Each structure stands twice: as structure tokens, then as C-alpha cells.
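Subject: Interface between my chains keeps coming out wrong

I've been trying for a while to get a sensible model of this assembly. When I model each chain on its own everything looks fine, but I need the whole thing in one frame so I can look at the contacts. Pasting all components below, labels as-is. Any help appreciated, I'm running out of ideas.
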Amino acid sequence: GDSVTQMEGPVTLSEEAFLTINCTYTATGYPSLFWYVQYPGEGLQLLLKATKADDKGSNKGFEATYRKETTSFHLEKGSVQVSDSAVYFCALSKNDTGGFKTIFGAGTRLFVKA
Amino acid sequence: GAVVSQHPSWVICKSGTSVKIECRSLDFQATTMFWYRQFPKQSLMLMATSNEGSKATYEQGVEKDKFLINHASLTLSTLTVTSAHPEDSSFYICSARRQLDQPQHFGDGTRLSIL
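Reply #2:
Try treating it as a single job with all components included. I did that and got this:
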């Protein structure tokens, strides 16, 4: 079945360090790919998305490129801040005979130290 | 931007009571709403999908009689946890989608604690 696998956390970085959170997916057809961020005690917020191969989603300094050849959608940021500390979820969405589904990865917790 | 409001944000109640959680799309009409459950330090588990005016579609293993979902209008869906017990304590998150090719927008979640 369809699935999303992302790197286990927690990831601990110092402020201004480079961030990469790996995400790979398994899916038939042509899913859309998303990164969501969850701050403590809150729901999820859409961070960025890509709807087709080679698309690059970007927002707030974060980027991810839809790589169909490697079935990946890695999240990157050049210089993290303390305020980026949160849990990041990679997700795919697709519509199939079973209806519309979003499948989430397990989440990666990021801690950024000052 | 699109906003989804979820209420209440936190509820504590006694075992055996029923609890209703509301999910509203504030600035768009949501043809589909989703209800998720999230255990501590884990990902979101989809409980059910509801389309306005029709019965919700529950995921395998989710008790329909335990978690009642109503999606009576394009801007409101409710989740009622009936006869709640301590094992129902969790973080419940709703999301809403305007139409098929649009992303989901999430509420801030409801932390439910059953004593």
C-alpha cells in the first residue's frame, strides 16, 4: 500500500545550521506531496507542497523538490532558527477508488538550540 | 488564508460522559472534513472522512457508535465521543478541504482528557 517514510528524530541543531529531513514515499499513480509543521499543542500547518514531478515547494526558507525518480521529497533549510523547533510531517495525498486519502509520515521532531 | 477553527481546545471530563468537538471552516465551504487522532509523539491516524450531507466513512478499527460524526453543513462538522473512557484520552484534530485538488487545512486540535 501507499506509505510515507521519514527520518527518525529527534534532530537537534544549533541556530543557523543547515537542515535536511529526509522523506521517501511509496505510491501508485501521481500523488501530491506536502510538508506540514506542528508546533507544541497545536494542529498542523501546511508548510509547502508540490503536485507533480520536479516541482519545488518553498515557504519561509524551507524547500523540498518532488523527485519521482528517487520517490523522495526531502525538506531543507539553509539556516534554522530557534523558532523552527517543531514536529515536521511529510505527507502524500491522492485520489483513488477508495476515495481521497492523505497519508502522513511518522513525524520528525526538530530542536534548534540558541 | 483559509482558517479552520476547532472547539474546545481542551476538555477534561469524567468517565462515561459524552463530549462533542466542533470543527468549523471560517472562510471557505468545506466539501470534505477529516477527523484524526494523535497519540503522544506519534503521527496522525485518520479516523473518518465526512462529506457534507452524507454519512461519514470510517477507517478500519474505528468504532462508528463510539465516535459519532456529523457534517450537516459546508462549514461545520462535529465529532462526539460517546460514553468516553480514559483510553479515549488523546489529541483530536480536524481538517477541512474546499475541493478535491485543494490541500487540507487543519484545526488547532482538541486535547481530550477522561478521568
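Reply #3:
Confirming on my end. The CA atoms of residues 4 and 25 of chain A lie 4 Å apart.
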